[in-house]
Amino acid sequence: MRDVAIIGVGQTPVGEHWTTSIRHLAFEAASHALRDANIDKVDAVYVGNMLSGEITGQSHLGALVVDFMALNGVEALRIESACASGAAALRVGYLAIASELADLVLVLGVEKMTDTSGRQTTAMLAMAADAEYEVSQGISFVALNALLMRRYMHEYGWQRQDFANFAINAHANGMHNPNAMFHMKISPEAYAQAAMIAEPVGLLDASPVCDGAAAVVLAPARYAHILSPAPVKIRASAVGTMPLAVHDRKDPLTLESARLSAQRAYKQADVQPGDIDFFEMHDAFSIMAALSLEASGFADKGQGVRLALDGDIMLQGRLPTGTMGGLKARGHPVGATGIYQIVESVLQLRGLAGPNQVGNAHLGMAQNIGGSGATVITHILEAMDE
Amino acid sequence: MEHKVAHDWRLRGQRYRLEGEVCEHCGNKIFPPRDICPECHQPAKKPYTLSGRGEVYSFSTLSSAPEGFEAYAPYTVALIKLAEGPMLTAQLTDVAPNEVTIGMPVEMVTRRIRTQGEDGVITYGYKFRPALVAHAQ
Amino acid sequence: MNNGHIMHSQRPVGIVGYGSYIPMYRITNAEIARVWGHESGPIKEKAVAGLDEDTITIAIEAARNALVRAAIAPEELRAVWVGSESPPYAVKPSATIVAEALGATPYLLAGDMQFACKAGTEALQAALGLVGSGMGDYALAIGADTAQGRPGDELEFTAASGGTALIVGPAEAALAVCRGSLSYVTDTPDFWRRAHEQYPRHGGRFTGEPGYFHHIQAAAEVILEEMGLQAADFAYAVFHQPNVKFPMRAGGRLGFTKQQLAPGMVSNTIGNTYAGAAITGFAATLDVANPGDRILLASFGSGAGSDAFVWEVTEAIKERQSRAPKVADYIRRRAEIDYALYARYRGKLAM
Fold this sequence. Notes:
The complex is a heterotrimer. By secondary structure, chain A is an alpha/beta fold. Chain A has 14 helices and 11 strands. Chain B is globular, with a radius of gyration of 16 Å. The model of chain B has no long low-confidence stretch (mean pLDDT about 90). Chain B is built from 2 helices and 8 strands, in the order H-H-E-E-E-E-E-E-E-E. The chains are: A alpha/beta, B mainly beta, C alpha/beta. The interface between B and C is medium-sized, with 25 and 26 residues.
């Protein structure tokens, strides 16, 4: 095993790309990443994507991407793990280099979600849940999160408004991210008055449907400084799982997969939660943010909301989260999200996050959650000093 | 999305009458059936039909339904903790959203889940409703 | 055996379990009258199936209640017959779905019967024959409907949703033993619905005397006469009830008092549940019956015909009454809806 570093990053703006197809989104992000890494060839391409076959009728993205990048002949695979597809692709790229089977790897996350109607997209996203015992009952992802949020509020005595800062913080951070989907500040009143989509989940608790692509280039850490002026080392890459259906989990309010994934990552990096300078968490829904903070060791069980309430998650706080807007404001192009998290983490560690720069950012953590939590992938990244 | 007929048909025992399994090693009741006990990890294939009694663990009412369920919106989905232990996901029926509470006793009924268009197959399955007061024990 | 018209089984048989189901939604006749500009309607209100209900779901719950009362294993059923004018499928048996939901498959007869409002008792007669011949020990007969009247038509005031299931078994296990039954059938087109049509047509007042009254009275009179019984020999009588007026008048002509009819008169509060109507009245009567009570049941189905039955309630009734929800429990479970929701629930909105 050898250490792996990120030597280049690229992204497209997140939004409704009516004029751009999935192949061109992928091409744009990948080109940026290769240019950033200052290379034009790789040994392998891994594409994280959840729904291209269902939404655009285009499966087989690995071959498509290398074809459109004029990289024909290169190893290329599409990797799918629901909303964690991006981080899953990074995991595969990481393994390829760590195992010395490849030297240069392009990892891409891409999702085109706006080519179907809202109801169709909702139904397709639900494919990440248990088709036979959840989706068959008319459940949606919003509904699954609503079930968790209501129970969480019931068990721990939180009010809906206590979650407001998750959305407020995300939107505040998104203001200064040119690639974010939303550039609008929201107030506690706006959160309180947001339309309900599945009580207690309101519109501002949920991340938007959107298009986007992000890419990173990986190389062996020992060559990273030769290839890049500001490489970032992957200190840990870890996957945890738990039952696919919420109802099959012993305690639905514990993200056991996130706990396993985070603990494995901490162990691999030999760090503690307190060492993490910022956390790109998977705030697809406010409740997921709270559960992720708890499972990752940043808050006690039932107290994840307090980090939002007390402002700990803000840029100046104890544990800045969603520093470039998170899933709520940057957007959640599902299969690309995990790579956006990594790209944004790299920008923070390079000191290139602009007005959103976290002070003394040295160690960052990104966590990508698949489905309602059945797959959770955690990466810990570290700035590589000369 | 459209389902092939066989997709629902093979699940009719579970859908129509909560046919699950019981682990012969540890006695754990299993629903949905998975042929392996999630508690003791031993093979568990003995059929066991659950009573259909339980209580609401959590719930939410969807005003915007996924494709295929639009005709029934708004409807309430819930996590139901069954009396025998397992939890499942199901719709609540015959109850107004503002009457549902966590802990509310419910019982299984077999209802229409969805139809595949006007000329397609009708899918029936379990839903839960507030337990009838007069239900004999 | 006998030279009369009464049908007797080879071995004594009876009802071992009964159960009903009535959807919880109600629309009042006043509300329907408001929409169409009428003064009032023939009954107080009728039961309306919800969005996720149909004849099959109604039949399933009624049958589950019957199974609980009978305390037999579903696999012991040798027949499940569903009588209805509103089966969800034109082709594909409702009965196989019901049987599967009960856990009664696969060794049984299963089929749907069609005879307007008499379909439920047609199934009951067949069940008496099957068990009475010894071909099987238990047979389930169901009458259930989600009947629809054309918007604005007089039938709309009464066409309702609900049903009842009756399990026929050996007399020694019965809560009500069948002492005899009779069927009276002619070709009388008083009410019909052509294929692919959503709503039925009817002959107006022709449905009355030549239809309902002639057939019910003929069936009831003959069964009483041939069995040497009179109205006064019965604790209760139940007639098909498309409204309140018709069964009261038919009962009166046959010599029955209001008190004898009262427990089985459910049409005022649930409407006309078509194939479920007479037998839901019968189930409501069994809910209050005592051992030794004699009950006359006479259905009517357009097209036209009547099935008449003489039942004698046994000691087994008392314990079984409370094993499952009673008709009155379902009548009490009530959520009133307006015409707009009713139109949505019953598919009357063109989408």
